[in-house]
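#lab-general

N.A. 3:47 PM
ok so I finally got the sequence cleaned up, no stray characters, all 506 residues accounted for. can someone with queue access submit it? mine expired

B.Y. 3:52 PM
send it over

N.A. 3:53 PM
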Amino acid sequence: MKRLFEITLFPILTIILLSLGYEGKNIRNELHINALLAKGFDTANISRLVRIDRFKLMLIPPSSGVQFYKDKIIFLSLSKNERKMSPNQISFGAVEAYYASIEDSATGRHQIFSPLSSFSYPCEAMTFSRDYNTVYFTKIPKKETKEKIFAGKLTPNSTNQTRLVSDIMPLDFCRDNYSYSHPALSSDEKMLIFASDREGSYGGMDLFISKEEGDKWSSPENLGKSINTTGNEFFPFLDSENNLFFSSDGLPGYGGYDIFTCKFNGVGWEKPVNLSAGINSEKDDIAFTINKMDGKIAFFTRREKTGTDEMQLFKISLKEDPGYRNLKTLSLIFNGKSPVMTSILAENPVEEVKPPAVEPIKIKPETDIIKKEEVKGQKAVVSFKKPPEKKVALKPQPEVSPAKIKTDTIKTTIPIPVEEKTVITYRIQLLATTSQKNSMEININGKSYPLFKYFYLGENRYTIGEFSTLQPAAELQRICRLSGYPQSFVIVFKNNVRSLDPKLFK
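B.Y. 4:20 PM
back already:
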């Protein structure tokens, strides 16, 4: 009913707005987007609004990405690669932070970030105040093994060279024996979000928030189960409107770490939304950051495998499409003021959205859902078969004589559909490919498992296992990750259709 209302209302709104003197072409495009949504627009392809390109910059550990510094990006590099720098400024061959203009690559002229004091800490794990004079960053203190968050001041000298003067001690709340990293400062500088495994986390690393209280930061609070999982939530970033971006390997996604966003509603953050297959992949997608000065460029990193140093930096740029010129920033695209825009460009909300009312279908027993087909020259290929839709036969209820109706008890004659059994199946996804595998069995830790294939988002997905509950599936995932499949993850099917309902992963 809601979608029908939207479709019928849009032409009326167009006529009204045009009569008031609004620009017709712009209005038509806005309404066109809404109409696409009402018709079930495929949101996986966001290429019409943004461009995603590989960025020519070698990422140097311990960094996993870059950060914006004014209208430039800051990154770690080896001084031996920066031959234009004066030898007396830095030690030859040392890892140091530099910044450069944003073009097709950062291979042009670089400037050292802090010429008067060394900075060799992860660049994506830092955040600046509005005036760029205060910085919060992550480093491991001497004689310790866990990351802590420090504050520092950037002060120029008479020749406009910058020195970073860091506090000797980390922030008050992170002086215990837990890890604290990747701070993200809100636009009003009143909130600080970071990743930690401190007491109160649900799994590995969780996202916490601390609020400014005078000249100190408050005791951290967990951002809650709608954001944090039993996995890891990492790399938080707050844009100029305090919308939250982060990476998670616990929320439903495409494999490894995926990038998610949560819209800020003025009080807190709404439920996470996956940034879609246009950005996320089966690898680790991490370290998302947007230029807060104009909001038109963002960066993120794709890591080949968890725990390796093989990384590729990507640049996201806003397309100057005159048809969508109201979308002036990436923040409006990913977390637009209209919920419609969020729905269009984020493919998979973590909370499953129920479709419009449809006729109920009768589900066959679980043993009938999977169809096995013998393929010549191969072992059994297993594919999924969608049950046919059937109308539920409704038994007519006997009519009730008006004389038999009591004032305190009224019997209804409205037929009620009989609810069918919902079949939940958990599997472990190992890999995806556009090609057909020759063998439909796989050996893991000395045990042979049949491969189950299903088609999703343009690729064949291969899974193993078949469980009715989450716990044994999680145990098989652990075995897979220890046996050469570090990016394996649990997926769930509801009535033989893949589901992203977070309630099924608890």
